[in-house]
Amino acid sequence: MQEAKEAAGIKPFYNVAEYVPENPSITNVDGPMDGCWHDSFYHILTDHLCGDTFDLEQLKDILDGKRQGFMGATNMVNYLGNHDQNRLMVELGNREIFDEDAFKRVKLGVALLMTAVGIPLIWMGEEFGEYKPKTIDSAKIDWTLLSHDNNQGLFQYYKGLIFLRKSNHALYTENIEFFHEDADAKVFAYTRWNDQGSRVVVVVNFSDQYLAGYQVPHFPANGTWHEWTNNYDIESGDDNILIDLPEYEAKVFVWKE
Fold first, then answer.
1. For the chain, where are the alpha helices, taking DSSP H only?
2. Do residues 205 and 227 touch, judged by C-beta distance below 8 A?
3. Sign of the Cα pseudo-torsion (32, 34, 40, 46, in order)
4. I need a labelling partner for 157 at 20 to 30 A (CA). Which of 99, 104, 108, 216 fits?
5. Handedness of CA 70, 73, 75, 81 (dihedral sign)
6. Alpha carbon separation from 190 to 28, 33, 44, 155 (Å, rounded)
7. What are the φ/ψ torsions at residue 36 (nearest 5 degrees)?
8. Which backbone phi and psi does 175 adopt, to 5 degrees?
9. 170: helix, coil or strand?
10. pLDDT tens track for 22-67
11. Which residue in 192, 187, 188 sits closest to 177, CA to CA?
12. How far apart are CA 102 and CA 94, in angstroms?
């Protein structure tokens, strides 16, 4: 890596290890790499999105890599899939989860990918629901999928959260706090923020139950929040917020005032 940095000279240079299983120590101050693939992010999140398990501590570990020994936000590369793994759509299909149910769970994964601490990686085609299993043979992306409503909806969902990721500097930081945990309902909430006043809150429902009128206590600030994925404003007061929380869905709230 040192030779590569010397060759790059004054140009920005970021060296990522495809090191599986991950080892945070290789990205620490005296480690040879700037970042590495966050393999546990993929495996743990896939198991949860497919409904195979629910372990809140595991989810907190992958959303806040500092709990696993990573030092900073640039040290881990998070992903829902890559060239070594089956696409999330394939894993869901293997469990007979298809159509609307599958797209819903993929969107939940995207919301977590784009709001977790770390750098998101998008494997080609996943942003609009490519479903081919991994293979060593030719497997061109099926661009015609974009003509279908569900696929186009997923594509727009990705675009919206990528824009949030790029424009809201709360998501650039290492700051994350899990302020609400309801393991029985499979619901939790966390906030990301920076010192200049930007703040994002994510409320997650990993259950298969629609939770109407769900109260989220200890909300980080009272006032107006904008729910990013469905484009509406909502007020919080008395350190609480009351929302309808559909099954396998995340609400992404951005602080307004």
1. 2-8, 39-49, 56-63, 88-94, 99-115, 149-167
2. no
3. negative
4. 216
5. positive
6. 25, 29, 18, 25
7. -145, 160
8. -80, 125
9. helix
10. 999 999 888 889 999 999 999 999 999 999 999 999 999 999 999 9
11. 192
12. 11
Residue position matching structure tokens 């009128």: 213
CA contacts within 13 A on the Cβ side of 25: 0
Provide the pairing of β-strand 187-193 with 223-227.
Answer: unpaired
Q: Length of the chain in residues, anyone?
A: 257
Cβ atoms of 198 and 168 within 8 Å: the answer is: yes
Query: Contact, 164 vs 114, CB < 8 A?
Result: yes
Q: Helix H segments across 123-240?
A: 149-167
Exposed e or buried b for every residue in 20-41, given b needs 16+ CB within 10 A? eebebebbeeebebbbbbbbbb
Residue carrying the six token digits 């409503």: 149
Backbone angles phi, psi at 98, to 5 degrees: -130, 175
What distance in Å separates the CA atoms of residue 127 and residue 83, rounded to the nearest whole number? 14
Encode pLDDT of 107-138 as tens digits: 999 999 999 999 999 999 999 999 999 999 98
- Geometric angle at alpha carbon 47, from 46 and 51, rounded to 5°: 110
Please give the structure tokens belonging to residue 69: 């020994």
